[in-house]
Amino acid sequence: MLSSVPDSDQSHQKVIIIDGKLYDVTDFHYEHPGGSRVLLTHIGKDASDVFHAMHPKSASELLANFYVGDVPESASDSIHQEKKAFANDLRTLRDQLSTQGYFQASRLYYLYKVISTLALCLISSLVLYFYGRQSTVAIVVASFFMALFWQQCGWLSHDFGHHQVFDHRQWNDTMVVFLGNLCQGFSLSWWKNKHNTHHASTNVDGQDPDIDTAPVLMWHEYASANYYDAIHYHHNKNSNNNNNSSSSIATTHETGGNGGGSVIDRFLAENVIPYQTRYYFFVIALARVSWAMQSMVFIFRKGALNQSSMLRLYEAGCLVVHWTLFLAATVMWIDGLRNRLLFFFLSQALTGYMLAMVFAMNHNGMPVITQYEAETMEFYEIQVVTSRNVKMGWLGTWFMGGLNYQIEHHVYPTLPRHSLAKVQPMVEAICRKHHINYHTTSFIQGTLESLDALDIAQKVSRKLVKKSF
Question: How far is Cα 117 from Cα 122, in angstroms, rounded to an integer?
């Protein structure tokens, strides 16, 4: 962090640095199209690379409205010169790729992707319509294709959400609401609030929401330490209250303590979390249901990210239509409560597996860095060392939605999916040149690495639980 820039903790004014200029986002961060949360992770910091990585050129026009001055040339930072050289090479490559047309999406490719993805829903619907009242096997087949449809909608929504396809933000967002809210049941605003922050602070402890899954899963030692510290604090606090007065005893018993001091929290801390590798594959089956519920809560409670009442109504309406159509098809085209429940839960669980197992490949089991460490690293370095590429054939690449090129995607988020494989050797060469760890593995090995991360965290949890109570 540059010492000349006020931190959000030191000043009410919230400023960011982009290309050597100061911008005051004190009021704007509430209306930021990508969400307030992502901006707040870079208050008082140089956000040049993350800005250019996540925005089209047209965003610079809006940014100019918040210009308040230049950063003094004497302002110092803690980034090593070699790391700056690495970032400069990736910036140069980005400019070259832009000039050569790599960032221009193929409209025919994405038309094919949309049509072929919608075809999966059609297949599932036809199987249900013609055979749902006759065959349990048909219901299983329909569940599989519906899960595949929802998963592929997620990858397409991701592409449009990163503005890889259209030049105009509105067209991309319209497609995200169609594919995400209506087809998949996930809110655009919920996703952007979460995912943009993930890209800005990838695997940064305390900032990246994708690794903040406690108390269900602990992906790193920091998460275990933070969770058990809170448990220990509340346990001691409640113990002191119990010793002070009988009224405190009654109050604690009735409320279950404060936060980490409840009976449920203690049960999880002692009997569940220290054994998370045992239930991991059961938990991820619930991923789609969990994210769908989070989407509903977000849009109905918080509204749209840009505070637009129209977008909120549009998103909420599409979510309601999604569940209305899904439940109506389940009831009308399937006979018997058992088979209806089978279709409902199997389609949800299969989607959970298809999404979560791919997500786990991306960053889980890769280095988690502290906020202090992040201050000494370039944006591009963080993206590369915390991401994992997965070696796949054409079918695996299709299944993963191109996210097996996770490093390239995180370095250039607006790069269309069909350009990732072409750019991959260029990015890897720059990483090798500057001795930046570029990690590529198989799907199975990546899964084992994720499980290793869970195992390390659960071993830390077993040690900490003895000290917490």
Answer: 9
Contact present, 358 and 392 (Cβ < 8 Å) = no
Domain range for 43: 1-77
- Hey, what are 50's tokens? 């993350």
pLDDT digits (tens, 9 = 90+) for 366-419: 999 999 899 889 999 999 999 999 999 999 999 999 999 999 999 999 999 999
What total number of domains does the chain contain?
3
Task: For 312-326, write each residue's pLDDT tens digit.
Answer: 999 999 999 999 999
> In the predicted model, is pLDDT for residue 248 greater than 60?
no
Q: Compute the distance between CA of residue 20 and CA of residue 29 in angstroms, rounded to an integer.
A: 20
Do 88 and 179 reside in the same domain of the chain? no
Span of 114-128, 184-198, 223-237, 444-458 with lowest mean pLDDT? 223-237
Asked if residues 365 and 390 have their Cβ atoms less than 8 Å apart, the reply is: no
Cα 44 to Cα 10: distance, rounded to the nearest angstrom: 10
Residue 169 contacts residue 275 (beta carbons within 8 Å):
no
What is the reported pLDDT for 254? Answer: 39
Q: 9: domain CATH number? A: 3.10.120.10
Same domain, 26 and 71: yes
Residues 402 and 460 occupy one common structural domain: no
Q: Give dist(CA 129, CA 127) in Å, integer.
A: 6
DSSP state, 23? E
Region of 75 on the Ramachandran plot (φ > 0 left; ψ -120 to 50 alpha; else beta) = beta
DSSP for 323-378, written as a single string: HHHHHHHHHHH--SHHHHHHHHHHHHHHHHHHHHHHHHHHTTTSPPB-HHHHHTS-
Longest alpha-carbon distance in the chain: 76
Q: What is the DSSP letter of 182?
A: I
Same-domain pairing of 250 and 121: yes
Structure letter (DSSP) for residue 154: H
Q: What string of DSSP letters covers 290-334?
A: HHHHHHHHHHHHT--TT--HHHHHHHHHHHHHHHHHHHHHHHHH-
Q: What is the overall mean pLDDT for the chain?
A: 88
